[in-house]
Design brief:
Elements lengths: L2 H6 L5 H13 L4 H8 L3 H13 L3 E4 L6 E4 L2 H7 L4 H14 L8 E6 H9 L10 E5 L8 H16 L3 E8 L7 H4 L4 E7 L7 E5 L3 E6 L4 E6 L1 H17 L19
Parallel strand pairs: 4-5, 5-6
Antiparallel strand pairs: 1-2, 3-9, 4-7, 7-8, 8-9
Helix pairs in contact: 2-3, 2-4, 2-6, 3-4, 5-6, 7-8
């Protein structure tokens, strides 16, 4: 069975499979090079790349003069479709052989729009079961409502997976809607004045990654590297330890004495 045919059983059509395989073989490449390798026309290749980005299988490489694309590793592909692992395992060795070179020591992934923000917020969620995320969280006055709805869903997933969030945030009226969240046992926040911290970008740290989400324009970046994650977490811990303990879990209801169960 050809690799492209096997990928079709995982939800890719023929053209999507050709582009994904070509990108695995090439490594980071432009749409023109991918089109040449896959045998597809350039306009078609752009359409297919957008489809694969939507599926979470291809990423845009940020901060390049020429737009480059990068395929997610085959292991991540199979994690997305783990209910079909019986089929996927048959082609895993062949796909891995197509991957060109070693992975970069620091891997960055760029996401745009609400769909991209959803991908960024869901990054490593499964691997973070029962673990802690720490971060600097911004006021939400610049965030569109659809992102706020997505952020509330992310909080629900945090609780579902018994994860914990320890964060630093500004005292701002836009965060009043989050008061009940701050009081729940999975969330532990310290607050500073808006004059001290008025960022519109949130930065948080997981097990091996740093996530940056800019509310204006909804652009998100994931930096995947244990050393980078450890460094940013150390910075967070220094700031956290310098701030006083909070009398209340939320600055918007100081009469709260105990956390909600």
């Amino acid at each position: 069975m050809r690799v492209e045919e096997s990928l079709a059983s995982l939800g890719l059509n023929e053209k999507q499979a050709k582009v994904y395989v070509a990108l695995l073989q090439l490594g980071r490449s432009s749409a023109y090079v991918i089109a040449t390798k896959s045998g597809l026309k350039k306009p078609t290749t752009y359409v297919i790349l957008d489809e694969l980005i939507e599926k979470g299988l291809v990423l845009k490489v940020p901060r390049m003069r020429k737009q480059l694309y990068e395929a997610k590793s085959p292991e991540e592909f199979f994690a997305i479709a783990e209910e079909r692992l019986v089929v996927a395992k048959k082609i895993l060795p062949e796909l891995m052989a197509m991957t060109k070179g070693e992975e970069a020591k620091v891997r960055s992934m760029f996401f745009e729009g609400i769909a991209g923000a959803k991908q960024a917020l869901g990054y490593h969620m499964k691997e973070m079961q029962d673990q802690e995320i720490v971060g600097f969280y911004a006021s939400s006055h610049d965030a569109p409502q659809e992102f706020l709805d997505l952020a509330f869903e992310w909080c629900d997933e945090i609780e579902k997976r018994n994860m914990h969030v320890r964060g630093i945030a500004p005292v701002h009226e836009s965060l009043r809607a989050w008061s009940d969240r701050y009081a729940r046992k999975n969330f532990n926040f310290k607050f500073v004045s808006f004059e001290q911290y008025s960022a519109t970008i949130s930065i948080d740290v997981g097990d091996t990654f740093v996530r940056i989400i800019a509310f204006r324009g909804l652009q998100s970046v994931i930096i995947e590297n244990p050393d980078v994650a450890r460094t940013v977490k150390q910075i967070f811990e220094m700031v956290w330890n310098m701030l006083p303990e909070q009398k209340s879990p939320s600055p918007f209801h100081d009469d709260t004495e105990t956390r909600l169960k």
